[in-house]
Amino acid sequence: MTKKIRIIGIPLDLGQARRGVDMGPSALRYAELDTNLRALGHDVEDIGNIETPVRDTLPEAGGLSYLPSVVAACEQAYEFGRKAIADGCVPVFLGGDHSLSAGTVGGVTHDEPCGVLWIDAHGDCNTPETSPSGNLHGMPLAALLGHGADELVNVGRAGPKIDPSQVILIGIRDLDQQEKQFVRDSRMGVYTMHEIDERGIATIAKEALTRLSRFSRLHVSLDMDSMDPRPAPGVGTPVKGGFNYREAHLLMEIISRESHVGSIDVVEINPILDDRNQTSEVAVELVASLLGKSIL
User: Is the pTM of this model over 0.90?
Assistant: First the structure.
């Protein structure tokens, strides 16, 4: 089925201490994302990047001192996401660190709710009070649920953007101590790598999609550190024991077959840490699978 795809770059690198993720959108474009999606028959429009501040022009303190700049970028992401959905497009947001999702998810849920699959090694459910590092890329999901810094919670529109029952986390294997309690107490669906190892990714994927089947469309927030560092080394916060190449593709293929993918984030690619753009190439292949590419 032909889709109108709108590619939106968000070169945001303020959510964490390690430099380089601002080059993620360029690396994904270099890996020929648009060519791969056009080969599937989709109508693809790349509208370039939103404006984000150059990190070297900001105070060196980092962490929460970057909150106003991150919020400003997320406000733009919100509006681009809202407009893409209103225009009947599938926005594909190219990050950039995961803090940008405080804007993208809000934007694509502006007019109606959708299911959210958060595919990540981390929970991203910290707040300024619970985060050991103060890094904002560990806070977007909490903010979307209405917890944390008011400025981030209120991006685009006041208050929570999603309900915990809309969200399922997949691939989780590295949570901070207080974050664990947040996740346990929430009503989000959570599938850790331990459970995926025991039950298999196909079973988990189908079960997760059944739980979100009441929504007419799905937002997939794909953090590339959900994968094991061997097939995807170019990420800022790698965690051993993630998805292998085939598991990741099977997950995308099942999502594509059994749901309506309405919007996508691809985040946390750091070309400086990569090996010949390997991680971006894998990411492009995964997005292609998510948007309909199949073996036969």
Answer: yes
Residue 215: predicted pLDDT: 98
DSSP state letter for 18: S
Predicted local distance difference test score (pLDDT) of residue 245: 97
What is the CATH classification number for the domain harbouring 139? 3.40.800.10
Is 250 contained in some domain?
A: yes
- Residue spans of alpha helices (H) in 87-127: 101-108
Question: Is residue 90 in a domain?
Answer: yes
CA nearest neighbour of 120 among 33, 44, 178, 188: 188
Catalytic choice (34, 75, 223, 228):
223
Active site includes 110? no
Specify whether 46 is catalytic. Answer: no
Examine the residue annotation and report whether 137 is marked as an active-site residue of this protein: yes
Longest dimension (CA), the chain: 52
Is residue 45 part of the annotated active site? The answer reads no
Quickly tell me which residue has 């346990």 as its tokens: 184
268 an active-site residue?
Answer: yes
Per residue in 104-159, pLDDT (tens digit) is 999 999 999 999 999 999 999 999 999 999 999 999 999 999 999 999 999 999 99
Number of domains in the chain: 1
Which domain, by its residues, includes 254?
4-290
Residue 147 annotated among the catalytic residues of the structure: no
Catalytic, out of 42, 137, 147, 219: 137
Look over the chain and give the mean of its residue pLDDT values, rounded to a whole number.
Answer: 97
Q: In the annotation, is 223 catalytic?
A: yes
